Amino acid sequence: MSLSIANLTRRFDQTEVLRGIDLDIRQGELVALLGPSGSGKTTLLRIIAGLDWPDAGSLTVGGQDWLRKTAQERRTGFVFQHYALFPHMKVRDNIAFGLTVLPRRDRPSSPEIAEKVRELLHFLQIDTLADRYPTELSGGQRQRVALGRALAISPQLLLLDEPFGALDAQVRRDLRRWLRGVHEASQTTTIFVTHDQEEAFELADRVVVMGAGRIEQIGHPDEIYDHPASDFVARFVGLTVELPVTMRQGRAEAPGLDLAALPRRAMADGPATLFLRPSDIAVQPDPAGPFHVTDVASTGALLRITLQGPGDCRLEAEVPRRTLDRLELGQTVSLRPEAGRLFPGQQSPRTAAAPTPISAFKEQRL
Ligand SMILES: Nc1ncnc2c1ncn2[C@@H]1O[C@H](COP(=O)(O)OP(=O)(O)OP(=O)(O)O)[C@@H](O)[C@H]1O
Fold first, then answer.
1. How far lies 109's CA from each of 137, 285, 331, in Å?
2. What are the beta bridge partners of residue 217?
3. pTM for the whole thing?
4. What's the CA gap between 49 and 319, in Å, rounded?
5. Which residue's C-alpha comes closest to atom 10 of ligand 1?
6. In a mutational test of the pocket of ligand 1, which residue from 9, 34, 37, 214 has the highest number of ligand atoms less than 8 Å from its CB?
7. pLDDT at residue 309 in the model
8. Interval 41-93: pLDDT, tens
9. Does domain 3-226 have CATH number 3.40.50.300?
């Protein structure tokens, strides 16, 4: 089903938790709601499910006004982070549950339910778990069963709230791939809440970035990663270095920085802020360079270098270890940002957080 939300607001007491949400989702899309804790993701999902109600705005699914429907009438499949499967029921009965409690006129016969469960077990690659109880399953297996239970009722929408949030990193990665495959085969319109950028970018057709009850940006993962629409999104997708610059005829200038690699921007002359990923800064040893190295730490493949420059300018760059064979504390370097986003105006100067030094590594004098 396609979904359309317009000007949706929700407040709890005096706090506006959703402030005018507009969102259209196409039939068969997999959309991630991505944002920091408290940005309103779960509230939005609960309103779509019919577990909460907005103060204003509209919610239309398949052309029907869903705010006039109860949660049951909406027929959504919902999977939570901690989905309480019924502990006294085997996996096959947990999956069948939603069908067995349908009103008599909609309820399939017992053989039809058994067949549907068999198909789902096979489709979700959990046939071997059918006769186990939930306590006999790993966390990842439980979430597969939870998804089976949500899909059993042939939901019009599938809503997933941090479904892999409690699982360890490797299981999460496996389940992501599995879910992507399940989605491609089932084509159920799916909305997925996460605060994990990697998860959202890997899974979703489109990502909706939320901050403080508003949608900051909607787009394909690459578009959001390469062209964040606001300083909020830029910080959220890892452009954590912020440098004050001056715009002159579409070019950014800053003392001691070679900004020639940045494309010209149609921006008014005046103060602006350049947002960079630490990995977008080329570091070149240079006896006359305006920056000097104050710390070097290794993250394995990368060197994280803290640099002090003209004025009070301090920033962090990350470079592959192999690109710099010698780098000493106190050494002077020049910097050449190779990509970045410019936004008008200057925020209060921010400095990059100091990395945790790895003393032993520093002593090797890289
Ligand atoms: N029933 C409620 N009563 C009062 N405030 C609430 C209620 N539900 C949510 N809130 C508040 O609304 C804001 C948004 O909460 P919500 O759970 O939607 O955010 P979220 O983006 O899903 O966060 P998280 O990632 O931590 O789950 C929070 O400040 C939360 O405290």
1. 29, 75, 77
2. 209
3. 0.84
4. 45
5. 12
6. 37
7. 85
8. 999 999 999 999 999 999 999 999 999 999 988 989 988 877 678 999 999 99
9. yes
Sign for the pseudo-dihedral over CA of 55, 60, 64, 69: negative
Q: What values do phi and psi take at 177, rounded to 5?
A: -65, -40
pLDDT of residue 208: 97
Secondary structure (DSSP) of 89-138: S-HHHHHHHHHHTS-TTTPPPHHHHHHHHHHHHHHTT-GGGTT--GGGS-
Which residues lie closer than 8 Å to 59 by C-beta, 6 or more apart? 3, 4, 5, 8, 47, 48, 65, 66, 67
Structure tokens at 242: 């912020």
The residue to mutate among 13, 14, 41, having the most atoms of ligand 1 within 8 angstroms of its beta carbon, is 41
* C-alpha of residue 40 to centroid of ligand 1, in Å: 6
Q: 241-363: which CATH topology?
A: OB fold (Dihydrolipoamide Acetyltransferase, E2P) (2.40.50)
42 CB within 6 A, ligand 1: yes
Using the mean position of ligand 1's atoms as its centre, give its distance from the Cα of residue 186 in Å. 31
Neighbours of 168 (CB within 10 A): 10
ipTM, 2 dp: 0.95
* Side-by-side strand order, sheet with 341-344: 251-253, 241-248, 270-276, 341-344
Q: Whose CA is nearest to atom 18 of ligand 1?
A: 40
Domain boundaries, given as residue ranges, for the chain = 3-226, 241-363
Ligand 1 centroid to residue 5 C-alpha, Å: 19
Check if the beta carbon of residue 145 is closer than 8 Å to that of residue 127: no
